[in-house]
Amino acid sequence: MTRHLRVDGPNHDDRLDHMAQGVIGQPLNRLEGPLKVAGRATYAAEARPRNLAYGVLVQAAIPAGKVLEIGDAPGALAVIRDKRMVRFAAQGMARKAPKSGPDGIDYMGQAIALVVADTFEAARHAAQNLSVRYAREDVPVNPEDVTPELPPKKQSKTGDLDKAMQEAAFSVDQVWHTPSQMAAAMEPHAAIAEWDGDRVTIRAGLQMLSSNKEQMADALGIRPDKLRLLAPYVGGGFGSKLGINAESVAAAIAAQKLGRPVQVSMTRQQVFDLAHRRSETRQRIRLACDADGTLTGLGHEALVSNLPDDGFSEPVTQATPFTYQAAHRQVVHAIARIHRSCAGSVRAPGEAVGVTVFECAMDELAEAAGIDPVDLRLRNIPEAEPVTGRPFSSHKLTEALQEGAKLFGWSDRRPAKERLEGEWYIGIGMASAVRVNQLVESRARVTLVQDGSAIVETDMTDIGTGTYTILGQLAAEMLGLPADRVEVKLGDTQFPPAAGSGGSFGAASSGNSVFLACEEIRRQIAKAIGCDEGDLTLQDGMARAGNVSKSLSEVVEGTITGEGHLEPGKTEKSHRQATWGSHWAEVAVNRWTGEVRVRRMMGVFACGRVLNEKTARSQCLGGMTFGIGIALTEAMEHDRRDGHAVSRDLAEYHIPCHADVPPLEVHFLQERDAYVGPLQAKGLGELGICGAGAAVLNAIYNACGVRVRELPATPDKIIAGLDP
Amino acid sequence: MRDFSFHRATSLDDLPAGATIIAGGTNLLDLMKHEVMAPGSLVDITRLDLDRVEAEGQGLRIGALVRNSDLAAHPAVRRDYPVLSRALLAGASGQLRNMATTGGNLMQRTRCPYFYDRRMACNKRDPGAGCSAIGGVTRNHAILGASPHCIATYPGDMAVALRALDAEVEIGGPSPRRIPLADFHKLPGDTPHVETALQPGDIITAVILPAPVGGQHRYRKVRDRASYAFALVSVAAVIGMDGSRIGHAALAFGGVAHKPWRDPEVERLLTGQEPSDALFAEAADILLRPAQAHGENQFKIPLLRRTLIATLRDATGMEAKA
Ligand SMILES: Cc1cc2nc3c(=O)[nH]c(=O)nc-3n(C[C@H](O)[C@H](O)[C@H](O)COP(=O)(O)OP(=O)(O)OC[C@H]3O[C@@H](n4cnc5c(N)ncnc54)[C@H](O)[C@@H]3O)c2cc1C
Ligand code: SF4
After folding, report:
1. Are A295 and A167 a contacting pair, CB within 8 Å?
2. Which of B135, B139, B302 lies at the smallest CB-CB distance from A719?
3. Which of B1, B3, B137 sits opposite A124 (nearest CB)?
4. Which residue windows are coiled coil (chain B) (predicted)?
C-alpha cells in the first residue's frame, strides 16, 4: 500500500521526536564508508563487463560552426557520429534530451564524435589525432560583446529606487564580477552502456535518476521502460551530474552500434570543457538607508551568460526578494547569449555568488553608515516576505546572527587596518546565509522482514552526502530497529522514483517518502496487534501498545511492504521557505604580497530537523570550503578570442587545498519547520556556501582596508589596493 | 598516448640512443597523455646508482635520482643550504615530491596552458607555429627575458634556490661535463623549444653545490593558493650580514622568466650597504628595469617588487626590528 502526502498545510506533530529508537539525528558514520575506503564501492567507470570497449570523445577545436569532414582513426574500432549525440548536458530536472546533432558546433570543446577502441589509451590516441575539417563561424564569446536579453518575467520593480538612492542618508552603488566556476567533483564523468536486445543498462555518474531516465530515453529515441540507469555510488556532483551529458549518451549509442558494452569516461580536461560551468556574473548592487541604518532601497542587477539554445540562467538574485526589507526595490536579470561552454547548476546556483556579493555590499553600507555590520542586518529583517506579504515557514536569521556574534567573539572587532601582526594584517568579517528551500516529488519502498530487518529502496542517489545513512536512520527510527538492521538500496531506476540529489532537496524529499512508507508499515503492524498506529511504540525489534508487547517476528508474517509518496503542495506557495544562517571569518592579509590566509571560520545554520549531526556538519564544512574557494582561489578563465576554458585541470583551477582551509566550526540552531512535511527537515547541502565567501571578503577589508570586487581575491587584486 | 618501447637501464652505458629519459614520471607522463611529448622509446633510469647525496670537497654532490622529499629532508641540506630545502618544500605536493627526482625537476617543462593544449598554436611544442599565449590568458607568463616567440616561464622552485646557490649541473653521456646552472636553462629567443643546454644523448647525473656561504636563507613563494600551486613569483635569497651592513647577497627569482632569473647588478647594489627601505626600493627598480608585461600578468611587476622588498626586510632583520 502506498501512503501519499501532499504538503498542503503545516505539520506540528513532531513525530520523529516521539519515536523510541533514538537513532535519528545521531552522528552515525556513513554506511558505505568502509566500501569506499577499501575501493569496493564501484563507481560508474569501474564495472568490467566482458568484452568492454572504450570510447573517448572528440572535441571541437573551434568555437562555432560546422564539421565538414572527419578523417579515419587507424587502430580504432569505430569513429561514431550520430545525430542523437548531445551537444551539452541536460539541465537538472529537464524531461527531455538537450540539443543534439554533433555536426553543428556551439562552443569550443563540444563533443563532435566518439572514437572507440579496445583500450582507453588507443581510443584516446586516435581521438587526439583525428583530422577534422571545419567551417568556422564568428560568434561572440564574451558577455560584454552582446546586447543581453532581459526576460520580462525575471525583472521586478517596486517603488522608486532611483529616488530612494538620491534621498538616502547613506548608500552603496558598486559593481562586482565573479568568474566562471567549475564543480570539479573528484570523480570525472563516466558511463558504461550495455544492450540486451532492445533494452539498455547504463551505469553513470548521475545525480537525479528519474529525470535522467526521461532525458536519456528521449535522447536515444527509446521508451523509458527499455532503459535502466544505475548510479549506486557517485563521486561528487555539486550539480555537474544533474543531467545526462555527452559521455553517457555516446556510450549508449556506441554500445548499440558495436553490439558490445562501451565505457566512456571524460578526462579531467574534458570535464572542464563539457560539464556545466557556473556562469560568470556581473552584479551591480545599490543600497540606500536612512540615518539609523534602515534600508529604504535595494537593487540587484545581474548579468549572466549562457549558450543561445539553453534555458538555464544563473538565478543570481534568488534570495534578494526576501532577505531584507526595503520599500523601494529593483531586480534585473540579464542574459548574454554567448558561445562559452554551457552554464548550469553548480552547488547553490544563484545564492552562491548572489548572496556572497550582496553581503559584501551590506558590509560596505555598514561601513558607510558607521553601523556595525551585524546591527545593520538585524535592523532590516522583514516580518514577512517583502512585496508579497507571504509569511515565512520559519525564520531564524536573527537568531543565527545573534548566536554567531556571541560564539565568534564579534565584539572584539576593530576598525579596518588596525591590527598588524608582523607582516600580517588581521581582520574579521561576517555575512548572513540564506538559501531557498523546496521539496520535490519522491517515492520510496520499505520492506520490513520477519527477522527484524528492513530494506529501503528508492532511485535516490548518494553523491557522497550521506543519503544511505540518513535514509537507514529514518527507517530504523520509525520501525524501531537498530540502524545496522536496515539495508538501503539506492541508485537504480528499477526502484521507486525519487527526487534525486540536487538543489538541497534530496534528503528532505526522499526522507519524507521513506517516513511515509514506514508510517504505512506501522499502520499494518498496529492493525495486526489491534491498536491505533499512534499508540504503537516500536523499539529494538519489539512492538508495544498498552500492555501488549510482541516481537516483530510474531507480528510480521514474511514481510510487510509500504510505499511512500511525497508531493510538494500548497505550502510551496503559501509560505516563503528558506534556510538561514550566518558566516564568520578571521583572515590574515600579508601587507607585502597580498596573500590571504583564513585563520578561522564559523557558521551557524538553521535547516529544520538535523537528520544526522555528522553528515549534516560535513555538508556545512564542504559548503564553507566552497565559500573560501569563491572568495580566494577559484576562477575558470576563458580565452577571450574563442571562449575556451584555459584552466582545465586541478593544477590550474584552484580549489582550496588543505592549507587554505583552517579549522571550521559549525553550529546548528534547533528548529522544526512545520511547512515542509512531517520530517520538518529542510535542505542543507548548499546553505554552507551562501555568503561564506562574503565573510572572508569582508574580513579582508577589515584587515587591510581593501575591497575586492572582482573575485577571487588573489594576491594581484589585493596588492592593487595596498600601500606601496 | 602514443605506443612506445620501454627499457629499464642498468648502467649509464645502457641508455639506448634516441630514447627519452623517464625518472619520477610526474611531468613526462602528463605530457605524454596529452601527446605534447610523444617519445617512441623511453628509458627508465630509476635503477641507476644516482640516488645519493655525498660530500664533494667542501660542497655537496646530489645524485640526479635523489627524490625531492629526501633532498629537502637531508640534514646537510637543512643545515647548510636551507634555501634549497625551503624551495623544495614549497613545490608541488607531498605525493609528487616523493616521486619527483632532482634531474627531472630541473627538466620540468613550462605550465603555459597553451603548451598543454594541442588545439592551440605553440612555438615551443611546434616550432614556427606561432604563440597563442600572446593575446590570451597570461597569468603565469614571463615579465623578464621573454621573446616575441614565447613568453612562457620555467615553473620550478628547486632550480631557483640552486641558482642563488651557484650550483652546477653534472652531465654524463658521450661528452661528460659540468655546466653552471646559470647556463643550463635558456631564454626563449627564437628557439623556445630549446630549453636547456643538454644535447642528444646527455643525461644529468648530479647537481653540485659549492661550499656553503652561511647567512640567512629565504625562499619566498607567492601563489594563488596557500599550497600546491606554481609560483606567481618567487624569491630565493642568501644574505649574509657584515655587522650592520649587507656582506653578501645572492638573489634568484622564479615564476618570472624562462629560466631562474638573477641580476648581478641588484646584488652589487646591496652589497656593503646598510639595509633600508630606500635601498631595497632601488634594488627592485634595477631588477624590474627590463620587465615587460603581456596583458594580465602586469601584476607580476609590482608583486615581484613587493616580494623582493619583503624578503630583503626579513633576511636582513629589518622586519623583526620593525
Ligand atoms: C600537479 C603538479 C604540481 C606541481 N607543482 C610544482 C611546484 O609547485 N613547484 C615545482 O617546482 N614543481 C612542481 N611540479 C613539478 C614537479 O616538481 C616535477 O614534475 C618533477 O620535479 C619532475 O621530476 P620527475 O623525476 O618526476 O621527472 P619526469 O617526469 O620523469 O621527467 C621530466 C623531464 O625530465 C627529463 N629527465 C628526467 N631525469 C633526467 C635526467 N637525469 N637527465 C636528463 N633528463 C632527465 C625527462 O626526460 C623529462 O623530459 C608539479 C607537478 C605537478 C604534476
Ligand atoms: S608562451 Fe611559449 S609555451 Fe606558451 S604558447 Fe607561447 S610559445 Fe607555447
Report:
1. no
2. B302
3. B1
4. none
Beta B233-242 vs B245-254: how paired, if at all? antiparallel
Is B299 a member of any domain? yes
Q: Can you give the pTM of this predicted structure?
A: 0.98
Taking the C-alpha atoms of residue A129 and residue A419, their distance in angstroms, rounded to an integer, is 57
Residue at B310 is within a domain = yes
Positions of chain A with pLDDT under 70: none
CATH architecture for segment(s) A350-437+577-721: 2-Layer Sandwich (3.30)
Among A57, A636, A652, A717, most B C-beta atoms within 10 A, so best to mutate, is: A652
Q: Which residues of B touch A659 (CB under 8 A)?
A: 225-228
User: What pLDDT is recorded for position B320?
Assistant: 87
Record: contact A593-B113, CB cut-off 8 A: no
The DSSP code sequence of A625-675 is HHHHIIIII--B-B-TTT--BS--STTTS----GGG---EEEEE-----TT
User: Which DSSP category does B40 fall into?
Assistant: S
* 3-state SS class at A388: coil
What radius of gyration do chain A's Cα atoms show? Answer: 26
pLDDT at B1: 85
Ligand nearest to the CA of B92: 1
Question: CATH number of the domain at A2-41+439-570, out of 3.40.50.10260, 3.90.420.10, 3.30.540.10, 3.30.365.10?
Answer: 3.30.365.10
**Omega into A712 within 30° of 0, i.e. cis?**
yes
Residue B17 counted as domain residue: yes
A32 is an active site residue = no
pLDDT (tens digit per residue) in B277-294: 999 999 999 999 999 999
- Best mutation target among B120, B153, B228 (most A Cβ atoms within 10 Å) is B228
User: Which pLDDT score is estimated for B168?
Assistant: 98
Decide: B142 in ligand 2 pocket, CB within 6 A.
no
Residue B64 lies in a domain: no
- Which of ligand 2's atoms lies nearest the C-alpha of B152? 1
Give the containing element (helix H, strand E) for A92.
none
Closest B-chain CA to A108: B119
Q: ipTM for the complex?
A: 0.97
Q: Which residue is closest in CA terms to ligand 2's atom 8?
A: B122
Give the residue ranges of chain B where pLDDT is below 50: none
Instruction: Give the CATH number, domain containing residue B243.
Output: 3.30.390.50
Q: Does domain A48-139+187-274 fall into CATH 3.30.1330.10?
A: no
C-alpha cell at A98: 538537450
Measured between CB atoms, which of A124, A592, A660 is closest to B226? A660
pLDDT at B321: 83
Give the chain A residue whose CA is nearest to the CA of B230.
A651
Which of B36, B125, B151, B230 most suits a substitution to test ligand 2, by most atoms within 8 Å of the C-beta?
B151
- How do the domains of chain A map onto residue ranges? 2-41+439-570, 48-139+187-274, 350-437+577-721
State the pLDDT at residue A1. 87
For residue B116, give how far its alpha carbon lies from the nearest alpha carbon of chain A (Å).
10
β-pairing, A199-204 vs A227-230, is parallel
Residues linked to residue A80 through DSSP beta bridges, in sequence order: A114
Q: Which residues of A266-280 are buried (b: 16+ CB within 10 A; e: fewer)?
A: bbebbbbbbbbbbbb
Say if ligand 2 is within 6 A of residue B112 CB: yes
The answer to whether B136 contacts A644, with C-beta atoms less than 8 Å apart, is no
Atom of ligand 2 minimally distant from the CA of B146: 1
The confidence score (pLDDT) of residue A297 equals 98
**What CA–CA distance (Å, rounded) separates A13 from B116?**
60
Ligand 2 pocket, B150 CB below 6 A? yes
Instruction: State if residue B187 touches ligand 2 by the CB under 6 angstroms criterion.
Output: no
